[in-house]
């Protein structure tokens, strides 16, 4: 299992970006996201074991999967609630161009998956 950090690997390309507004406080939105990703993070407060890093201080969650995929979620305060940002990042160190090809299904389904995630945490 790879070590997951808040810093992106040196070789990275943002493949898709999404953002959505939730009418809840940023801390509440982050807690809901952390609970959603807890099963893959070994989450008990703050953890970096498993397939995800959950960092409460920066309200950031990093999900690492496969050889190319890195998903980053950030919760930011904004008027009337919280802004949730999500980026899909290709972090393949080799065969970098093959990442989006291998992940085309994930990339194609990402808009709907992001909306479902927001609906589930709202």
Characterization of this structure:
With 122 residues, the protein is α+β, with helices and mostly antiparallel strands. It is 32% helix and 33% strand. The protein is built from 3 helices and 5 strands. It has helices at 26-41, 98-102, 104-121, and strands spanning 13-22, 52-55, 60-65, 69-78, 81-90. Strands 1-5-4-3-2 form a 5-stranded antiparallel sheet, with helices on one face. A hairpin with a 3-residue loop joins strand 3 (60-65) and strand 4 (69-78). It starts with 12 loop residues before the first strand and ends with a helix. Residues 43-49 have low confidence and may be disordered.
Count the DSSP helices.
3
Q: What proportion of the residues is helical, as a percent range?
A: 25-40%
Main β-sheet, spatial strand arrangement: 1-5-4-3-2
Shape: globular
Question: Average pLDDT, to the nearest integer?
Answer: 89
- Beta-strand residue percentage: 25-35%
Radius of gyration: 14 Å
N-to-C series of helices and strands: EHEEEEHH
- Low-confidence segments, given as residue ranges, are 43-49
> What is the SS-derived class?
alpha+beta
Q: Major beta sheet, specifics?
A: 5 strands, antiparallel
The total of beta strands comes to 5
- Between the first and last Cα atoms, what is the distance in angstroms? 31 Å
Brief sketch in words of this structure:
The protein has helices at 26-41, 98-102, 104-121, and strands at residues 13-22, 52-55, 60-65, 69-78, 81-90.
């Amino acid at each position: 299992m790879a070590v997951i950090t808040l810093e992106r690997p040196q070789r990275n390309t943002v493949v898709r970006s999404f953002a959505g507004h939730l009418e809840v406080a940023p801390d509440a939105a982050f807690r809901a996201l952390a609970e959603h990703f807890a099963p893959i993070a070994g989450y008990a407060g703050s953890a970096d074991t498993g397939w995800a890093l959950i960092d409460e201080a920066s309200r950031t969650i990093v999900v690492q999967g496969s050889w190319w995929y890195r998903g980053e979620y950030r919760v930011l305060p904004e008027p009337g609630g919280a802004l949730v940002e999500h980026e899909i990042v290709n972090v393949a160190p080799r065969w970098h161009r093959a990442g989006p090809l291998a992940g085309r299904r994930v990339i194609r389904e990402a808009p709907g998956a992001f909306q479902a995630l927001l609906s589930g945490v709202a």
